[in-house]
Design goal:
The complex is a heterodimer of chains A (239) and B (305).
Chain A: E1 2-10, E2 16-25, E3 30-34, H1 41-49, E4 56-61, E5 64-65, H2 71-77, E6 79-82, H3 94-102, H4 108-117, H5 122-125, H6 136-150, E7 154-158, H7 166-183, E8 186-190, H8 194-197, E9 202-207, E10 210-215, H9 217-226, H10 228-238
Parallel strand pairs in A: 3-8, 3-9, 6-7, 7-8
Antiparallel strand pairs in A: 1-2, 1-4, 4-5, 9-10
Chain B: H1 3-13, E1 22-27, E2 30-35, E3 40-44, E4 50-55, E5 60-65, E6 68-70, E7 76-85, E8 90-94, E9 97-100, E10 107-117, E11 122-132, E12 139-149, E13 154-163, E14 167-176, E15 181-190, E16 195-204, E17 209-219, E18 224-233, E19 237-247, E20 252-261, E21 266-275, H2 279-287, H3 292-303
Parallel strand pairs in B: 1-5, 1-6, 4-7, 5-8, 6-9, 7-10, 8-11, 9-11, 10-12, 11-13, 12-14, 13-15, 14-16, 15-17, 16-18, 17-19, 18-20, 19-21
Antiparallel strand pairs in B: 1-2, 3-4
Classes of the chains: A alpha/beta (239), B mainly beta (305).
Chain lengths: 239, 305
Amino acid sequence: MLELKNICFSVPGEKDILKNINLTIDNSKFVVITGPNGGGKSTLARIIAGIQKPTSGQIFLDGQDITELGITERANAGISFAFQQPVRFKGVTVKDLITLASGKELSVSAACDYLSEVGLCARDYIDREVNGSLSGGELKRIEIATVLARKTKLSIFDEPEAGIDLWSFKNLIDVFEKMHQEIDGSIVIISHQERILNIADQIIVIADGEISKVGSKDTILPSILNSSTECKYFKEGLQ
Amino acid sequence: MNSLLKTMLEQVSDLHDVPIGAYNIRNNGKSEGRNSTANIQIQSKTDKPGIDIIVKPGTKNESVHIPAIITEAGLHDLVYNDFYIGENADVVIIAGCGVHNCGDQTSMHEGIHRFFVGKNARIRYVEKHIGEGDGSGKRIINPQTHIEAEEDSYVEMETVQLKGVDSTKRVSSAKLAKGATLVISEKIMTHGNQLAETSFSVDLNGEGSSANLVSRSVAKDTSKQVFRSVINGNASCYGHSECDAIIMDEGVVAAIPEITANNVDATLIHEAAIGKIAGEQLTKLMTLGLTEKQAEEQIVNGFLK
C-alpha cells in the first residue's frame, strides 16, 4: 500500500505545483490519474519514484516511511516507473536494458517474451541499441517492457499511450490488464485516454496541483466526460 | 612461451596459444615465433626492424596475427611493418600491442604500419592496445597506420585502447582511389593522467571513394584526449567523421575536425559531441535498481562496447 501524506511541491519563484496531496493506493489496485496538462500529475509520479523530492510531506510504502529514500532504494523497495519520454542510450541494447530491469540473467527467449507482450517482433529488436535509430513508439514500448520485466508491487506509467499508434492501442490495454492479473501489484497510470480510464478500479483527477475528484470509474468517468472544459483536455490527449 | 607472454597475448589478440595461419609474435623487440602459409608470406626487413607481410592475390578467408608484447622496463621498441595485399584478396589482420611494465623506466612501442591494398581487395584490420604492470615507469604506445587503397578496395580498421596506456599518439592516414572504401572505428578510454591523441588524415582521391571515421571515447580522472580528423574530398566522394566523447571527473576532450571539399561533388560531414553522462540516463537505470555508480559503469561499458 502506498500512502502520500500532505505532499507539497513548489519551485521558488513559481506557483505551487502540488498542494497538500493526500492519497492512498491500495494493494493490487489499478489506478488511473488524469486531469489537465500542467496540473501536477507527472510531478506526483516522479515524487513517488524518488526522482524529485517533495518540498514537504511524507510517503509510505507498506507502512515504511520512504520519503528520504533515493531512486535506487525505492526501486529496490518495489517501485517501478515508466518515463513519459523514454531515455536513449548509445551502445546499450534492448536486451541489456530488459536484463537490467529484470535484475537477473535473462535468456534471449525470456527477454523476447517481454518485447512480444508490448507488440514488438522480438527478434528484430533484441540486439538493437536503445538509441535514436528507434522510433518514439518503439522506445515507448521498450520502456513499458522494462517495467513489465521488473514485476514490482507498484508500477507507475507516465502517459504510456503517447506515441503509440491506434492499431497498437488495444494491445496496450491488454498488456495492462494481463499485468494486473499476473503480478498482483498496484498499477498507477497517468493517462488522458478514455479507454484506459475505462479499465481503472479507481480514478484520481488532479487539477491545478490538487486532487479534485477520487472514485470508481462509474462515478468519476461520467462526470469527466460531461464536463465541457475537461473534455477539451481529453481531445488534446487523443491528438 | 612464458605465462606472462601468454596472458598478454590473450588480452591483446584473444589468442590462447600460437594462432592458426600466418603469424609473427614480437616479444621485447624480437620475433618469438613466425609462420608463413602458402598464400601469406612473412619476411624480415633487411634495412630496418620489422617485417613485410605479402598476401597473394586472390587469397580468401585467411588471417594474419602480428601481436607485439613488451614486458621489459625501459625498452623502446620501434618496428616497421608493411602489408602488401594482392588484388581480390580478402583477409583479416589482427595486430595489437601490450606493454607490461613493472619497472620504473619508460617502456615504449612504436609500430609503423603501411598497407598497400590491391584492387578489389578487402581487409579487416584489428588492433587492441593495453598497458599493465604496477611499476612507476610509463607505458607508451604510438601506432601509425598509413593506407593506400587501390580501386574498389575495402579497408576496415578497428582500434581499441581501454586501459593502462599512459600516453599514446595515434596517427592514421589514407589515400583512396576510385571506388575504395575506408571504415575506421576507434574506442578509447583514458584514466589517471593519461594522454591520448588521435589524428586521422584521409584523402578521397578517386571518384566514388568513401570514408567513415567513428571515434567513441571516455576520459576519466584528469586524463586528456585530442581527436583530430582531416578529410580532403578531391573527387566525387563521401566522407564522414564522428567524435563522440563522454567526459567524467576532470577529464578533457578536444575534437578538431577539418573537412575540405576540393570538388563540387564531394559530400563531407563532421559530427562531434562531448559531454558528461546525461542525468536522465543515470536516473532511468537507477529506477531499475542500479546504484549511481553501477549505472555509470553500465553506460560507459555500453558506449565503448
